[in-house]
Amino acid sequence: MTQADRSFQPETLCIHAGQIPDAATGARALPIYQTSSFVFDNAEHAASLFNLQTFGNVYSRLGNPTVAALEERVAALEGGRAAVATASGMAAESLLFTTLLQQGDHIVAANSLYGGSVTMLAVNLPRMGIQTTFVDGNSPQAFAAAMRPNTRAVYAETLGNPSLQVLDIAAVAEVAHQHGVPLVVDNTVLSPYLCNPIAHGADVVIHSATKYLGGHGSTLGGVVVESGRFAWDNGKFPGMTEPSPGYHGVKFYETFGDFGLTMRLRMEGLRVHGASLAPTSAWQLLQGIETLPLRMERHNANALAVAQHLATHPHVAWVSYPGLAQHPDHALLQRQSSRPPAEQPAASGLLAFGLRGGMQAGIKLLESLTFISHLVNIGDTRTLISHPASTTHRQLEPEQLAAAGIGPDMVRLSVGLEHIDDILWDLHQGLELACQ
Amino acid sequence: MSSAHDIQRILQRCRTLAVVGLSAEAHRPSYFAAKYMLEHGYRIVPVNPKYPSILGQRCFPSLEAIDHPVDMVDVFRRPQDTPAIAEQAVAIGAKVLWLQLGVINEQARAIAAAGGLEVVQDRCVKIEHARFFGGLNYAGVNTGVISARRPLRTTPAA
C-alpha cells in the first residue's frame, strides 16, 4: 500500500503532512535546502518550469523544498487546498491584499485587529487606492451594512488580539459570499489545532507562524492558506481569470483551479515583492508544529487556571478570557472549536485583564515580575506580558483603541508552558508589589 | 470517486494517452497538461480535427482514426460531448476514460464502465500525476500524501 485513503488526525498531520523521506537521500527528518537556486536538466526543462507547465524548483524566492513542507503542513492542518509561506505574518497579509486587490477596491474589516494590521488597512493600503471600512467584529449585520459594490474582501481575526473577541465565522462568511467576495481570516491566536475556519466557511486563512505554530518565540514566519472552494470567476476578480501580464498570459484560475490563488500569490506577488521565508526558518517553524497539539493543550490549561485565579484576585478589576463561561463569546468559541466538546475550553493562552489601580498599577506590574517577560510577542513557550495601549497599538487613535476594545488599563498576558504554580506565584508577587 | 490508490495505479500502468480536445494554444490548460505528461515519459496522442500535429506529436481527427493501441482516453471537452467519446473509447479498447477537472457526465461514466473501462471524473491528469510523482508539493499544495517511504516513481528506477 502506497497511499492510504484516510483522513488523518491533526496530531498525525502535525508530524507527517508535507514531508516524506527525502527522495535523494532517504533522510527521515526534513533536510534544510539552504540554496538560493536549483539547476535545470536542460533548456526545455527550464522553459517548462518558467511557463508553469511543470512543477519544480527554480529559485528560493518563489519556492524551496524545505519551505514547501511547511506550506503543505499548514494547508493540511487547516483543511485547505494549498498555502504559500512568507517572511512574517504581516508579509502574508501584505502579499494577499497587494496581490488580490487593486486600486479602487474596498475591504470590510473588523475593528478589533492587531495594531499592525489596522495600520496596513488604514494607512498603507489607502496610499495604493484600496480603502477599508472598519466595523464591529461581533456584528455580522455591521459587516453586511458596510459592503459596497467595489468590496473585494472581508477580513477579521478568528480570536481578536488583544480584544479576545470571537468571530462568528459562518455568519460573516455568509455576508461575504452573498456579495461574491472571500472571507479572509487571521487564525493566529487559535492556531489550526483549536479552530479550522475553512470548515466554517472562510476562504483564505492567514497565520503569523511566529506565534503558536512555531511556538518557541525564535523565528518569524507567515502563511496564507487557500481553501480551494472560492469561485473566482464571478467577474469581480479579473486578476484571477484574465491573462496575467505579469506572467506571460497565464490565467491562474483556469490553469490551476482550486489552487489558483496560491499560484498567483507565489508567481505574481512573492516573485515581485520578495518577502519569502528562509529555509532555515521554515525548518525551525516545522520543529515547533510537530508539538503544536501538546503545547496548545498546556497553553489552554495554564491560561484557564490563570484566568480563574485573576478573576477572584482582590487587586484585579476585570478579566477577559473566552475560555471562561462568563465571557460573552464563550459559547461561540466552543461551537467553532475543532476539539471534542468534552475537552477543556480551547481558548489558547491569550488573556487580558485590568487592575483596580488602573494603568499605573498595570505598568508597575510589568516591571515587577520575575520570569514573566515584558515584550510584544504572543504564543511563546514563555509567559509574556504587555500593555497594548502603549506598545502594539500605540499608533492607534483613542477612538480606534476604544473600537478595538483596548482600554488604557488593559494588560495582555500570553500564558506560556512554565509550571502553573510558578506562573501564579510570579503574578501574585508582582501584583503585591504593583498594588501596595 | 476514485481512490488515491486507484489513481496511482492508473498513472503507473497507462503509458499511451489519447488527449481528446487538446489545444495547440500554449496557454490552454489542455496544452499545459499534455506537455507535462509528455515530459514525464508518457506517449501523447493528440485528438483534434483542426491540427496536423500538436507538441510535435501526430494529431488524429478522432479516437477511431488512431492506428495503435491507447491505454487512456483523457478528455478536455464539454460534459455533453463525453457520452459519444466514451463509446469510441470502448470501441478502440482503451483501459481508462479520464474526464478532466469540471467534466462530469454520468452517462459517459456508465457507457465506459459497461465497456470494461475504469473511469476517473473531474480530475486533472497533470495535477494527479504531480501529486504522487511529480512535485506538486513544491507548489505548497496539500497532496494528502503521508508515507514513511521515499517518493514513488511512475516507472521503475533505471
Quick structural overview:
The complex is a heterodimer of chains A (436) and B (158). Chain A is α/β, with parallel strands linked by helices and 436 residues long.
SSE topology sketch:
The complex is a heterodimer of chains A (436) and B (158).
Chain A: H1 10-16, H2 43-50, H3 65-77, E1 82-86, H4 89-100, E2 106-110, H5 115-127, E3 131-135, H6 140-146, E4 151-157, H7 169-178, E5 183-186, H8 191-194, E6 204-208, E7 222-226, H9 238-241, H10 252-256, H11 260-273, H12 279-289, H13 292-311, E8 316-320, H14 330-335, E9 350-355, H15 358-366, E10 373-374, E11 384-386, H16 398-403, E12 411-414, H17 420-434
Parallel strand pairs in A: 2-3, 2-4, 4-5, 5-6, 10-11
Antiparallel strand pairs in A: 1-7, 6-7, 8-9, 9-12, 11-12
Chain B: H1 4-13, E1 16-20, H2 29-39, E2 43-47, E3 53-54, E4 57-58, E5 72-75, H3 82-91, E6 96-99, H4 106-114, E7 118-120, H5 125-132
Parallel strand pairs in B: 1-2, 1-5, 5-6, 6-7
Antiparallel strand pairs in B: 3-4
Q: How would you describe this structure to a colleague?
A:
With 436 residues, chain A is an alpha/beta fold. Helices cover 38% and strands 13% of the residues of chain A. Chain A has two domains: 10-288, Aspartate Aminotransferase, domain 2, CATH 3.40.640; 293-434, Aspartate Aminotransferase, domain 1 (Alpha-Beta Complex), CATH 3.90.1150. Chain A contains 17 helices and twelve strands. Chain A has a seven-stranded mixed β-sheet, with helices on both faces. Chain A has a five-stranded mixed β-sheet with strand order 8-9-12-11-10. In chain A, helix 1 (10-16) packs antiparallel against helix 3, helix 3 packs parallel to helix 12 (279-289) and helix 4 (89-100) packs parallel to helix 5 (115-127). With 158 residues, chain B is α/β, with parallel strands linked by helices. Chain B has a five-stranded parallel β-sheet, sandwiched between helices. The mean pLDDT of chain B is 92. Chains A and B meet through helix 1, helix 2, helix 3, strand 1 and helix 11 of A and helix 1, helix 2 and helix 5 of B.
